[in-house]
Amino acid sequence: MTRLSPQEMKHLTKEQFHVTQECATENPFNNAYWNNHDAGIYVDVVDGKPLFSSADKFDSKSGWPSFTKPIDGKAVTTDEDRSHGMVRTEVKSKEAGSHLGHLFDDGPKDRGGKRYCINSASLRFIPVLNLEREGYGQYLKNFPKEVIEKAKHDLKARIQSGEYQTAELAGGCFWGMQDLIRRIPGVVDTEVGYTGGKTANPTYEDVKTEKTGYAEAVKITFNPKVVSYEALLDFFFRLHDPTTLDRQGNDVGTSYRSAIFYLNDSQKEAAEKKIKEWDASGRWKKPIVTEVTKASKFYRAEEYHQDYLVKKPNGYTCHYYRTF
């Protein structure tokens, strides 16, 4: 087991830290994945190691994600848990030692009889369509072709119907923002690009001159049943410093500005309200300078920028999750 340092766990929310490091239990029926039926794998929210597959997930009626087995025999370990006046079997991730949940013997009899009852806060879900791009391509072979085709069809249908929604946010270098936003439960897909500028078809070489008016931004597809637009903005104001004008860490220039590009009047109203709330909260000691601008054309950035910190895990980033 490799224990991560507090600095290495700065991507965790307060609840994720409370559950994985302090053995807390989240509320049933009020967590991200208890009712998730999509195809994909579940990884340790701490270190990203694969833990469970959707193929082994079942509805236990308990209100927590339940699985019949781990994704492989080396993914988890168990310990005796004598807390709370009872004897239970605790489930932990093998590599990071994260508290995941508990193991019971009341699972489906035709599937081994085990129930791995797991906290959503211990997990991050990787949809089957994102496995390759997020470095888990070896698990694609576990999903039949028809499952993958259905996932493609469902994603397109959900976007077209409005079941899934879109947000466009800028908060400095889009690498760091994307890497943290992708971890938010309810975020289905992300891509980095350029928006808010003046010229057509900008390239990174154009944007970095700071003469085009473009901001480095993240286009986010999200499930509002899991994470609302307002909640997404709350994450946004924790992932970067919204009080520094045209700057984030060592990156300086208008392309690194803090900005919310709204796609409709409802998003504009929510953004303006959230800025007032965060200013009034005093969590940031200086005024928030985030601009709220009507979205214009979003240009997808070059492929080498997409999922950059997945490709280069030790790459530069100044972004982290603030618990205040």
Q: Secondary-structure map with pairings?
A:
Layout: H1 14-22, E1 40-44, E2 50-53, E3 57-58, E4 66-67, E5 76-81, E6 88-93, E7 99-104, E8 115-118, E9 123-127, H2 145-161, E10 165-171, H3 174-181, E11 187-195, H4 204-207, E12 215-222, H5 229-239, E13 247-248, E14 251-252, E15 258-262, H6 265-281, E16 291-294, E17 299-300, H7 308-311
Helix pairs in contact: 5-6
Largest sheet: 6 strands, antiparallel
- CATH topology group of the largest domain: Peptide Methionine Sulfoxide Reductase, Chain A
Write down the overall mean pLDDT. 95
Low-confidence stretches: none
N-to-C order of helices and strands: HEEEEEEEEEHEHEHEHEEEHEEH
Ends apart, CA distance between termini: 29 Å
- The number of distinct helices, counting runs of at least 4 residues, comes to 7
What's the shape?
globular
**Total of domains:** 2
Please describe what this structure looks like.
- With 324 residues, the chain is of the alpha+beta class.
- The protein folds into two domains: 7-127, Metal Binding Protein, Guanine Nucleotide Exchange Factor, Chain A (Beta Complex); 164-311, Peptide methionine sulphoxide reductase MsrA (Peptide Methionine Sulfoxide Reductase, Chain A).
- It has seven helices and 17 strands.
- The strands form four sheets. Strands 3-4-8-7-6-5 form a six-stranded antiparallel β-sheet. Strands 16-15-10-12-11-17 form a six-stranded mixed β-sheet, covered by helices on one side.
- The longest helix is centred in the middle third of the chain and has 17 residues, at 145-161.
- The chain is globular, with a radius of gyration of 20 Å.
- The model has no long low-confidence stretch (mean pLDDT 95).
